[in-house]
Amino acid sequence: MTTSPTTPATASPTESPLLSAEGLRVTFPGRHGAVPSRAVDGVNLDIRPGEIVALVGESGCGKTTLARALLGLVPPTSGSVRFAGRPLDYSARALKAYRRRVQLVLQDPSGSLNPRHTVYEAVAEGLRIHGYGGDEQTAVAGALSRAGLRPPERFFLRYPHELSGGQRQRVVIAGALVLDPELIVADEPVASLDASVRGEILALLLRLRTELGLSALVVTHDLGLAWNIADRVAVMYLGRIVEAGDVEQVLTAPRHPYTQALLSVLPEAPGAPVVLSGEPPDPSRIPTGCRFHPRCQILSGGEAERAGVADACRTREPDVLGGSDVGQVACHWARTVVAP
């Protein structure tokens, strides 16, 4: 993390959320009568207009399922999603209108683009699905230009295999921008790109936020990416957000042992990396007490015992965090020992 974090362009702590989740749970039935899998297990999260929020955590922690639930692609088992103050309506017509305002950008541009479609057809597809009544060619050219593909007409008849990885990702972003959304959900938007191209795509997302007032939820396992692009960060572990707050606050003074462990393996992190024991638990077998306690270096190292919270770590589940921008942590030890 070598550069300073971004400054929110339009988001205000007092502004009403554009998108919010409250008590969100997504449970998948187990096979052959097995215990259901609690992929998202009680999440509150707010995203305000013009704000970029990074959702970070290990693979399998529930990040993508949460993102899909926010997009209406996965109906919640319980809880609610609200957009612009209204509960999400899961009827086909309402979801179609909603997805014009909230667009998804996937991590693999090669898999997102039909190899038999030209760039023009790929970007125009959303316009045709939603019955756009304006000048299609002008809209496609404008979206490609905003995504950094200029002059746009030069790309109209090209196919995905004729483009570089960075150019393909820009086409995917243009396909989202062509509908003038208010929010984009970017799932690992630079994971498949070369290091030299990642910075260009991140700079593009920041510029779009500044110029268009776009909000964004960026799903990533990369804390360095979160530092460089986000206003706020939410750290997810085993279906639940365990720490959230201003990106500089969370990533320079992490309070949750899991966040501390994630940060410790970055190349520029001081001290020795924290090696967590075992793999993340199965979401169908969430431990009692704090869900992180079987892998927690604070508990295994005796610090929780000295703070008098070891029993609580093993037996009492921390409260679900609120969705606001206030710094929060779901950890008995951190709430006892580490000042907010």
UniProtKB/TrEMBL annotation:
Keyword Nucleotide-binding belongs to the record: yes
Highest taxon in the source lineage: Bacteria
Domain ABC transporter: from-to ranges: 19-263
Keyword Isomerase annotated: no
Entry keywords, A to Z: ATP-binding, Nucleotide-binding, Transport
Coiled-coil segments: none
GO molecular function, one term: ATP binding
Protein family membership: Belongs to the ABC transporter superfamily.
Protein's name according to its UniProt entry: ABC transporter ATP-binding protein
UniProt source species: Streptomyces cynarae
